Amino acid sequence: MSKPVPTPRIEPVEIMQPGTSSCQGCGHGVIARNAMKTFGENTVFISVPGCIWITIQSHIPLYWMGTSFQGGAALLSGITNALEQKGNTETNVVAFVGDGGTADIGMQGLSAAAERNENIFWLCADNHAYMNTGGQRSGSTPRFAATTTTPVGKASRGKKTWSKNLPFIFAAHHVPYIGTASVGNVNDMVGKIEFAKGIKGFKFLQVQSPCPTGWGFDPSQTIKVAKLMTDTGLWPLYEVVDGQFHLNYRPKELKPVSEALKPQRRFRHLTDDEVNQFQEMASNRWDELLKLDGKPLPF
Ligand SMILES: Cc1ncc(C[n+]2csc(CCOP(=O)(O)OP(=O)(O)O)c2C)c(N)n1
Question: Is the Cβ atom of 105 under 6 angstroms away from ligand 1?
């Protein structure tokens, strides 16, 4: 059944230092600060190029390493196996990576690490495009979104295809923990990390982080936009624990998707018919998730 995530009491030890080089209104600082506090000091972090690297680089005093996109999951696998060889099964081995580094450029090694069920935690800070290099589309960019490589003009209505369903891609790897979260619901995110960090094996958490620069909204509105994405069903919050699906946030009635799309400049060209297509996609997916709630995935 629908299972809200209890908020754990996290130790108030700040791991991120004050100051960040992110854009104004970027949600990545909220994700990194709260996630790091929840993982705690006994953690090794890695990143690959992207905005989350910029967010945390030189702002954490702990073990942190940066590597190439393709090498992220391999580095993480190496670290966890080396620690295990030394008898250390307590240290969290965690990646903070963007959606491009997860869905596209890092996917091959990550899929292999998931199949091996490596004892690692992959947190994908998802801002729906390659934002660090100027907002090019990624596998996580939604259909119709205007990006610098899917511009809107006479011959183009923005991105042509819907985004990759990353949680279900990893669910199809039969890993022990998968979750979605949002910067608009930090308690839910923190609860999921606290629950999942103790699970042995591959953990995947995709945290949506609306990007004022790339999505085109006022930097003061990040959390509001994030909440609209979950309240309209455009970003459902759920978990798959040992193959069992749980919807964690189930509003009585979803708001129309237009409420979330309207404040975003990347969607300002949408016709009524295109908004309806968006609504149909979100409503159909929501209905399917309601049917799955509390049940094992059928694969
Ligand atoms: C193999 C490779 N291709 C491209 C780049 C250039 N590059 C650096 S950061 C970045 C964008 C990363 O996007 P994403 O993972 O979505 O993270 P974001 O910056 O959006 O947070 C790209 C394409 C690179 N460093 N290495």
Answer: yes
Q: What one-character DSSP code corresponds to residue 257?
A: T
Ligand 1 pocket, residue 50 CB under 6 Å: yes
Model confidence, pTM = 0.97
In ligand 1, the atom with minimum distance to the C-alpha of 131 is: 20
pLDDT band with cut points at 50, 70 and 90 for residue 283: very high
Ligand 1 neighbour 127 (Cβ under 6 A): yes
Mean pLDDT of the region 78-99: 97
What mean pLDDT value characterizes the chain? 95
Tens-place pLDDT, residues 90-109: 999 999 999 999 999 999 99
Give every CB contact of residue 101 below 8 A, 6+ residues apart in sequence.
Answer: 48, 49, 50, 69, 72, 124
* 8-state DSSP, 75: H
Assess contact for 7 and 187: CB atoms under 8 A: yes
Q: What percentage of the chain has pLDDT greater than the value 90? A: 89
Distances (CA, A) of 125 to 97, 98, 253: 6, 5, 27
pLDDT above 80 for 7: no
The rounded distance, in Å, linking the Cα atoms of 165 and 172 is: 11
Domain parsing of the chain, residue ranges: 28-292
* Pairing of the two strands 129-130 and 43-47: unpaired
Contacts (Cβ under 8 Å, ≥6 apart) of 123? 31, 35, 94, 95, 96, 97, 193, 205, 207
Mean pLDDT, residues 188-194: 96
Residue with tokens 């004050």: 18
Residue 190 φ/ψ, nearest 5 degrees:
-65, -40
Query: Is residue 130 within 6 Å of ligand 1 at its C-beta?
Result: yes
28-292: CATH homologous superfamily?
Answer: Thiamin diphosphate (ThDP)-binding fold, Pyr/PP domains (3.40.50.970)
Cα separation, 210 vs 67, whole angstroms: 25
- The bridge status of strand 136-137 relative to strand 129-130 is antiparallel
